[in-house]
Amino acid sequence: MDLKNTSKINPLSTLVGSEYVKAGIALLFLVGVMFFAATGISHGEVNIMLVVAAMIGGYMAMNIGANDVANNVGPAVGAGALSLGGAIVIAVVFESAGALLAGGEVVSTVKKGIIDPASISDSETFVWLMMAALLAGAIWLNIATALGAPVSTTHSIVGGVMGAGIAASGFDIVNWGKMGAIAASWIISPVMGGLIAAAFLYLIKRTITYQEDMLEAAKKVVPVLSGLMAWAFSTYLILKGLKKIWKVDLIPALGIGGLVAIGIYFLVRPMISKAASSLQNDKASVNQLFTLPLIFSAALLSFAHGANDVANAVGPLAAINEVFASGDIAKKAAIPMWVMMVGALGIAIGLALYGPKLIRTVGSEITDLDKSRAFCVAMAAAITVIIASQLGLPVSSTHIAVGGIFGVGFLREYLKSNYQGMVNEIKHHQAGKPEAIAEFLRQFEDASPERKKAMLKEVKKKSNKAHMGKKERKRLKKEYKNELVKRSHFIKIAAAWVITVPASASMAGMLFFMIRGVMLP
Question: Could you give the 3-state DSSP secondary structure of residue 212?
Fold first, then answer.
């Protein structure tokens, strides 16, 4: 999809209409949460604080749907494997299923152990802290969505908890070691995602698209890649998506994933062979073979995200509910079904109303994604989380996915620049008529990487011209450089990542003092 033609991904105007209609639907959802919290869960007297907390939790959930879910389905939409409407339906169904079926029954009251709940003097202060953290995280996500910047939901709520915790009890309440690890993830997550995605793209190019008979190569390689994806995603789903209802260690998870991979390989191989027999020998045809794996990856990523990240919306709300139910501050809190429903419905509504903006950004505005490139991003998302979780490295699924997109974009820039350099070498050394040079370049373009090197070496050997100097190479490289990643988006997104924790922390601190001031007699 052309970066300049992003209008192909349009908002769901037929479903939700104008911005006023979207705002109205969102408001109706929050009003519904308010009435339910006031009447459906109260035992006699209405708990105003719990009602307000439920509404803030619903607001947070909508913002998670609007911002974070785009990373799971955006590449598939940008590559044309899914329509925007189809992607939203898949995301809504699987996000909700992940939250309700595998979201677990207990959640940590303080995400990532950023602060120690025992340091809070009383339960009332703890409730104010959680409300301020939740609201600050939601507001920051809302701002980031409006700016078109995909940011980490986890980092947003972590910053909120940190800022509100400092406002409530001073700087000593924060676990600065944990915060340092989270800060390190700003670099770890996108770099790991980018490198893995770029490695898979290079593998696909070397084994399929650089071959003279691409379809014959695809018949052999695509089933293997599909099996690898099945292995990665099965392991990812067992370790992350189902961890709250089924505890499995890495080795058994890899074993189960390996069995699934073998089954998928033998299932897919005849399907790929049959599909390839009716296609032409070009890159567009090869890309069609990655459509089904991309659809499955979008669904599984959404399921795992729903199982894990709904806690970012409902964790503080569950903590507040636990305080009012038991009167004590606990490190773990039970998640009532009504709390999980608020999170799941909020994410679904936020995605349907405001998700297209970030889906457009992730899917098509950073770099041009086709199906094979989007496949590499999906693989990076699953593999990076598996590796990082086993090494104990804190990573963000948002940063991994977007880092993967940057990785494939920058690799393409490098390869195109390198190819143009070889063409310049040929033009510099090749003698003969323009027609002969054009024919040689055509053969060069269709040749395999090994054949390209041999042809270039042969041309240089026959030529009497001096080799190009470093200055000449540098000038030509700069002249023919193709920027396939939008630098403005790269800078904007990187800046948003860096300021997420400080921004949400600052807002949370101010909101804590405001809430406390209102609630004190």
Answer: coil
Query: Taking Cα atoms as reference points, which of 108, 121, 109 lies closest to residue 170?
Result: 121
C-beta neighbour count of 498 within 10 angstroms? 12
Residue with tokens 């014959």: 216
Residue 471 has pLDDT above 50, yes or no: yes
What are residue 174's DSSP bridge partners? 115
What number of other Cβ atoms are within 10 A of residue 388's Cβ?
A: 19
What pLDDT score was predicted for residue 265? 95
Following DSSP, what letter does each residue of 6-73 receive, concatenated? GGGS---HHHH-SHHHHHHHHHHHHHHHHHHHHHTS-SSS--HHHHHHHHHHHHHHHHHHHHTTHHHH
Segment holding 106, helix H or strand E: strand 106-108
Please provide the size of the chain in residues: 521
Burial 167-200 (b: 16+ CB within 10 A, else e): bbbeeebbbeebbeebeebbebbbbbbbbbbbbb
Residue 408 confidence (pLDDT): 95
CA end-to-end span of the chain: 59
Average pLDDT across the chain, whole number: 83
SS3 107: strand
Parallel, antiparallel, or unpaired for β 106-108 and 332-334? antiparallel
Residue reference for tokens 């062979």? 273
The CA distance from 202 to 373, in Å, is 10
Give kind and range of the element (H or E) at residue 89: helix 84-102
- Residue 334 to residue 315: CA distance in whole angstroms: 9
The more confident residue out of 227 and 462 is 227
C-alpha span between 493 and 71 (Å, rounded): 13
The CA distance from 160 to 157, in Å, is 5
